[in-house]
Amino acid sequence: MKSIVILISGRGSNLRALLDAGPPEFSCAVISNRPDAEGLAYARERNVATAVVDHCDYSSRTDFDAALAEAIDRYQPDLVVLAGFMRILGDAFVRRYQGRLLNIHPSLLPAFPGLRTHAQALAAGVKIHGCTVHFVTPALDCGPIVIQAAVPVLGDDTAEILAARVLEQEHRIYPQALRWFLAGRLTLTADGRVLLDGETPSDASLVAPLAQ
Ligand code: GRF
Question: What is the best residue among 15, 31, 38, 167 to mutate for testing ligand 1's pocket, by most ligand atoms within 8 Å of CB?
């Protein structure tokens, strides 16, 4: 059975979607950088192993990254999944987990990296917004794209309404990416290309529900 570690910082709605992702079955541990993360309570309710590596306990990013890697490696995971993990990870950390580190970002990357993506999308006046699962590389919100979901931006959207529409799709595409990985179907080549069943993914990697 494959093993994954999910890193969270807060609410944990993607964590919930991921825990329900199977089959195939997998063993899982959840690590948070915040002791009060809501997602931790949920993981405990589900009898999932949890740990906290509080970034406030470390004076440098390098020390925090090293402690986090140590906590992760105790579980010997095949895959590390960032699910609303709100710390920037250093290059050495990212390289250590290259090809087995996934993130979800609430925009159609490469548009709107960083924070407040829904407000950014509204300010830009885009008509389509969405979310992206990607392999993590040292450049922030930039890694090779695994799967995206697109949603319409409607006339009376606020950032909150748009965020909720996107989140619903996050809960579809992240479990999908996880299932692919667990089934051995998803790989990252040494030159940074995403392969699904040994080929460049096409239809399966775009989810585009119709406008309601
Ligand atoms: C999600 O929108 C995710 O894309 C972003 O942070 C948010 C985390 O939400 N990286 P949750 O903790 O999974 O509910």
Answer: 167
Nearest protein Cα to ligand 1, atom 7? 84
Q: Which atom of ligand 1 is nearest to the CA of 39?
A: 12
For atom 2 of ligand 1, which residue has the closest CA?
A: 106
- List, for residues 146-187, the tens digit of each pLDDT value: 999 999 999 999 999 999 999 999 999 999 999 999 999 999
The residues near 3 (Cβ < 8 Å, ≥ 6 apart) are 26, 27, 28, 29, 75, 76, 77, 78, 79
> Which regions in the chain score pLDDT beneath 70?
210-212
CATH pick for 104-212 out of 3.30.70.260, 3.40.1010.10, 2.60.120.470, 3.40.50.170: 3.40.50.170
Known catalytic membership, residue 105: yes
- Please tell me the predicted confidence (pLDDT) of residue 210: 61
The number of beta carbons lying within 10 Å of the beta carbon of residue 4 is 23
* pLDDT for residue 105: 98
The pTM of this model reads 0.96
1-97 belongs to CATH 3.40.50.170: yes
